[in-house]
Task: structure prediction
Amino acid sequence: MSHAALSTRFTELVGIRHPIVQTGMGWVATPQLAAATSAAGGLGILAAATMSYAELAAAIAAVRERTDAPFGVNMRADQADVGDRVDLLIREGVRVASFAMAPKQDLIKRLHDGGVLVMPSIGAKRHAEKVAAWGVDAVLVQGGEGGGHTGSVPTSLLLPQVVDAVGGELPVVAAGGYFDGRGLVAALAYGASGIAMGTRFLLTSDSPVPQAVKDLYLSKSVTDTVVTKQVDGVPHRVLLSDLVQQLEGASTPRRFTGAARNAMRFKKDSGTSWGEMVREGRAMRKTMELSWSQVLMAGNTPMLLRAAMVDGRVDLGVMASGQVVGVIDDLPSCAELIERIIAEADTVLERLTG
Result:
């Protein structure tokens, strides 16, 4: 029996046993990983932003074949077919819809009407206040230590700001720098209702990432990541590599040429039409306040991540990673990882409470 503090507003809201979330990492959060996390009592989240509609439908079915536990789907609110995807989530009884960019109020209402909880990821106090006013069910707040798109404020400062702003209204899930039971207890002490982890779940035996890529991650220290804007035009924390250093030193025309080439590859692989890509680009420019050059650069991300995470080509791809990579040294299963975190959190809580 776990300590009472490990039963939180978030676990009760979602219907999971443990306050641990596996984030929707592109090309990494497959049905295999999401189902393993959910079956172990956490909340697994499918990464649907890089999937076609048909691939998403198949992925949801694949999770269902593996577990009947609640799980989530991460989507982009600006995708041209987001309405169809929302309808799919409702029909399939998906428990949580998560978003990197907050969906508009009409989309939130549509999901709520269908019984789906909404949890956007945010990186600033003002963003949390905004989505709370829109009626979301929970927020995932990521500090600057986290991998992928990230901000500059560390979790230890951002989390209490967000908890103070919206914690009375919404469960807050903390991300950025978490990997063990001590971190879970620390997040709960700040007022969070759980933690979310990306890099830690990427480095599990249930992760689909090629073993050679995992071995590279395991060899890194906490200083072996870098925040760069040269991947897709916005701050992105990745493993420092020769390719990233080349992107940092490349001329503007060369970067744009590479981005355009990757955008064409993504169009071909995803089956997205030029019209849909233009509409998505306009939406990204508006919602993320990007320049057109940054929108073009965004074509880099899916293919550069896929090159490493799917094809195992670390020389041709980028590898999103939190700084926490430097304190991870093994590849447990999701079940082993969650059991370990909860056991350690229990021990810490017992010690603190006497």
About this structure: Residues 77 and 135 are 16 Å apart (CA to CA).
